[in-house]
Amino acid sequence: MIWQGHRLKRYARFVEVRTFPEALKAIMEQQGWTQVELARELGVSQAWVSEVSRGQKDTGMARAIGLLARVGWEVRISPKMEESVERREFLAAAASVVFVPSTRANPYQDADYVHTLAASLARNRYELGGIPLVSSALGHARRIEQVLHDTVRDKALQTAASQLADQVTLVLYDAGSLVQADRVGGLALELARRAGDHESQARAYDTLSRVSLDRGDHARGVTYAQRGLQMTDITNGQRASLSMRLGRSLAFIPGQETASRDILDHALNVGGLSPFGEAALVGDVAIGLGHLHAYGEAGTLLSEAAEAIGQWSPLFRAQYLGRQVQTAMRASDLSLAADRMHKLARALPFVTSGRVNKRVGEILKASQTNAAPEIRQAREHLRAMISPAPPPST
User: Fold this and answer.
1) What CATH number has the domain spanning 274-388?
2) For the CA atoms of 183, 185, 189, 194, what is the dihedral angle to 10 degrees?
């Protein structure tokens, strides 16, 4: 597990720590703070800092992430082993902490630093889910808004800030804060426009289409996807993803079912994607096919996606498992639905996601009147693994 620091006052170098107590000690050393001063910055008591620093008191992952964000640090989970691992092994894998310094007084004016923040936020979202990252993500959003008023007009900085705003949008989207996600997504698009960066604009349109679809504004989802596809010089991955967004949005518009199916098929055949991008695309296209009532095809693709994506993103795996449960139930394949409910239940403790929580709630509601013994047992397993913490309000 990586506890990653981002503010450096006294010297610029990499610092590796492996535990939360070591992270607190490193912060005090780097900032020249006493325990009292650190406690003030974190909003906790000096006694709490003392107990945690000595390893006498433990804290949960979500709280640790929130506290460290207040002093400019982020948590990044990174296994040392290269082969695919189950989530429990993934969390237990040896890891280290990387301190990323900036030579600027205001690191948010450093394009390389901002780009690193965006990459780190993406990794953490894939691994943990959006809810634990909301506090730090909103902090990033407030800081990068200042880039819009930057008189230097640094194109590289605007591009990096757009990428970070896009990742903040995805964190808020996954946490269920859709209104805030839409606002920050607009910021990402405006920064990309000012930079004149077509890839960043396409990325922002893709994300805004995703948010619009989740908000039920399907026509807006279509518009954003179409605008993204009009951009020139974008990657195959972006073109495939935007086509998928367009197809999924059209699936909800009466009379557009054939067009939706054709576009989703086209998205699958774009080619040239990374293994992660290919797995994510397959899963997302499958969701669109499910909306078109092609349950057999959707179920097959969702199974493929959930199996492939787990080595990169426990969050995506949980999402695809949830979708597979719903698809199997709609197809009246109770045996498959029960099997995937058990797998989803085992995945829940390792992600904290508003979207996953919503999906589980829908599954529990849809299955509550089903008398099949395998569904009842799977439902109880799923209910027992639900996180008590609700997603943030929208």
Assistant:
1) 1.25.40
2) 60
